[in-house]
Specification:
The complex is a heterodimer of chains A (345) and B (292). Chain A has 345 residues and is α/β, with parallel strands linked by helices. Chain A is built from 12 helices and 11 strands. In chain A, strand 2 and strand 3 form a beta hairpin. Chain B folds into 2 domains: 92 residues, Elongation Factor Tu (Ef-tu), domain 3 (Beta Barrel), CATH 2.40.30.10; 128 residues, Rossmann fold, CATH 3.40.50. In chain B, helix 5 packs parallel to helix 7. Classes of the chains: A alpha/beta (345), B alpha/beta (292).
């Protein structure tokens, strides 16, 4: 990995150079009842709208690579026959500007499942291949537990990662595209004192974490506690609304619906992101529901994230961004659920 | 100066949304609820190259109506000349119930794991079906019958709610001609029914009682498909009779929207019923929480 430093004032030039493309980054969306800013990812046209000092966005950036609704194909129906058109929906490159490590790691995890296996998903793959990612350092919030999940720093999955050090940006460069980009602005090699400052920054970040999840032996504990009564307690709280999946950077499950026009000449197959907490997630034709109670669905969500995915890819699917807990209307948070399951030993 | 990023051209996965064009060539009503659809891939080359194994499934698509997984009920030697036994139970299948021969549909697949009938050669075979579970079993039944001499004793046990709900009745005589023990039981009698009434476990208990214990324990492979509750009782009975868990194969049903391990709807933990299943050996089932 190559490193560079550049003055903070140069960032606007970097932005402007990239602005020939669509840039998506954190923007302020409003304020909560306590006057705190609310952020979300959005298309950024003006550098002054880009809020790199953001705490956490409400939604992850997945809407830009795993859209909530997306057409999988369309059909033209004529004379008793049909023709199928498939469009992967990636028309132009996308710059994601200002992703925190958790969201970059979320992409890395999604890559494993969506681009791996026998049937890589081209809808995701094509968008992913046409992405330029600028990461940005963050200040851990009270609900962040990425450190516990091992996702508090990103080792790959970005082009450029910027760590703010007062008046300087310390840049990690992972692609030739990013390398050439930096050639166009005023930057230089870091000296040894700047290396030190960078490591101090990392250390300072480490000490700010409040929330913590003990993941040691978690896969085994989850297997042992599959019938623990504590799941029912959480299930009683859960509203089965699916908000957690909506804001989660790694939830990718979907349902499919087909729509046909009034005269039956055109039809389309649409995918919609779903949530395993929704009542009909596992309903099959004929009406049998494999997970009828809300606690079985909530439990499944935890098993998939923290056990099943670990079994398949040797890492958890959860990145510890804390969004699900922040958005949950029933105040169910991952650190609390896991702590309670561990305690039922 | 502004930099426009390169647009990298399409990535792998061209086949992701590909479906073979197929035509419904015949529809046979089997019972009040189920029909057997003969579906042929239109392109003769694709039809010939469509190779599947017993127990695998396809996604059947009716453009504008829906897309759903169905086990293949026909013999693997027939390649892309498929038979699907379908109950009109959901939106799409109720629509399918009203269409006739000549309808153009989409087929993708074959997907999933299969019953390892080749590895079962030399063994006694027990095929146990409950209700619509006979649909995925008809393919291994036909595959075994086609190479009948390579197998030992072959028994089919089939339970249905009522005699009028029995599927493939017209084929029983043919199956029996291949020296197959076919035993059928129903939950509820109907006028004219002369066979036994009760649960499928009773047939199985009888078969176990009639068997040579060592032969049963060491040389029997079992294929089971039926409603979730049936699996538990049948498999427990088999295990207590000494059949090793890795020689019992089940086919599980789950909701699916892609068949390719991407929609996550059929997951049991992180195991995809579409990729790692639908056919699992019972050892895998024991390792999966909430599988049955």
């Amino acid at each position: 990995m190559l490193f560079k430093v550049f003055p903070v004032v140069e960032l606007i030039r970097l932005f402007q150079i990239l602005a020939a493309n669509r840039i998506v980054g954190p923007v302020k969306k409003g304020e909560d009842q306590h006057g705190r800013s609310l952020y979300d990812f959005g298309v950024v046209h003006d550098f002054s709208d880009l809020r790199l000092d953001y705490t956490q966005t409400i939604h992850s950036a997945k809407n830009y690579f795993l859209p909530y609704r997306e057409d999988l194909c369309s059909f033209t129906v004529q004379d008793g026959d049909w023709h199928k058109e498939v469009d992967y929906g990636a028309y132009a490159p996308l710059v994601l500007f200002g992703l925190h490590s958790c969201d970059i790691n979320a992409l890395n995890k999604l890559d494993k499942v969506l681009l791996g296996g026998r049937y890589p998903n081209p809808f995701y793959g094509e968008k992913r291949a046409n992405m330029f990612i600028v990461g940005h350092s963050c200040n851990p919030q009270p609900y962040c537990f990425c450190k516990s999940m091992g996702t508090d720093s990103a080792l790959r999955g970005f082009d450029l990662f910027l760590t703010r050090m007062d008046d300087l940006y310390f840049a990690e460069i992972l692609s030739s595209r990013a390398f050439h980009l930096l050639e166009q602005i005023d930057c230089r090699e870091p000296d040894s004192s700047e290396h030190r400052r960078y490591l101090d920054e990392m250390e300072a970040k480490e000490s700010q974490f409040v929330a913590h999840v003990d993941t040691s032996d978690l896969t085994k504990i989850l297997d042992l506690e599959f019938q623990a009564p504590v799941w029912k307690e959480w299930g009683e709280k859960c509203l089965s609304c699916g908000t957690c999946a909506q804001v989660c950077p790694t939830c990718y499950c979907y349902g499919v619906e087909e729509h046909v026009d009034m005269v039956f000449t055109h039809a389309r197959k649409e995918k919609q992101l779903y949530s395993c907490n929704l009542l009909d997630f596992a309903v099959v034709a004929g009406g049998h529901n494999f997970r009828p109670e809300s606690h079985t669905r909530l439990k499944y969500r935890y098993y998939h994230k923290h056990r099943g995915f670990v079994e398949a890819f040797e890492e958890s699917l959860c990145v510890g961004c804390g969004r699900c807990g922040q958005s949950c209307l029933a105040h169910i948070t991952v650190p609390e659920v896991i702590a309670s399951v561990r305690a039922s030993k | 100066m502004k930099t426009e990023l390169d647009f990298i051209q399409p990535v792998a996965g061209e086949q992701f949304e590909y479906s073979y064009k197929a035509e419904i060539t015949n529809v046979y009503p089997l019972t009040r609820m189920e029909k057997l659809y003969q579906i042929q891939l239109v392109d003769p080359v694709e039809r010939e190259q469509f190779i599947f194994k017993p127990g695998q499934f396809v996604m059947l698509e009716l453009p504008g109506i829906g897309d759903a997984p169905f086990s293949i009920s026909s013999s693997p030697v027939r390649h892309g000349d498929l038979e699907l036994c379908i109950r009109a139970a959901g939106n799409m299948t109720r629509f399918l119930d009203r269409v006739g021969r000549g309808t153009r549909v989409g087929i993708s697949g074959p997907f999933g794991t299969h019953f390892p009938v080749e590895k079962m050669e030399g063994e006694d075979i027990l095929l146990i079906a409950g209700g619509l579970g006979i649909a995925p079993l008809r393919s291994p039944i036909l595959a075994v019958l086609e190479k009948r001499s390579r197998y030992g004793q072959v028994d089919i046990m089939y339970g249905a709610r009522r005699p009028s709900e029995l599927l493939f009745g017209y084929e029983y005589a043919m199956w029996r001609q291949f020296d197959v023990g076919l035993n059928i039981i129903v939950d509820r009698e109907e006028p004219g029914w002369q066979g036994p009434v009760g649960l499928i476990t009773e047939l199985l208990k009888q078969r176990i009682a009639d068997s040579v214990p060592d032969r049963f324990r060491e040389h029997t492979s079992v294929i089971v498909c039926g409603p979730p509750v049936m699996f538990r009782f049948v498999c427990e009975l088999l295990i207590s009779a000494g059949v090793p868990v890795e020689k019992i194969f089940v086919s599980l049903e789950r909701r699916m929207h892609c068949g390719r391990g991407k929609c996550c709807r059929c997951n049991i933990g992180s195991t995809y019923t579409c990729l790692d299943g639908p056919v699992f050996d019972y050892w895998s089932v024991l390792n999966l929480k909430e599988a049955i």
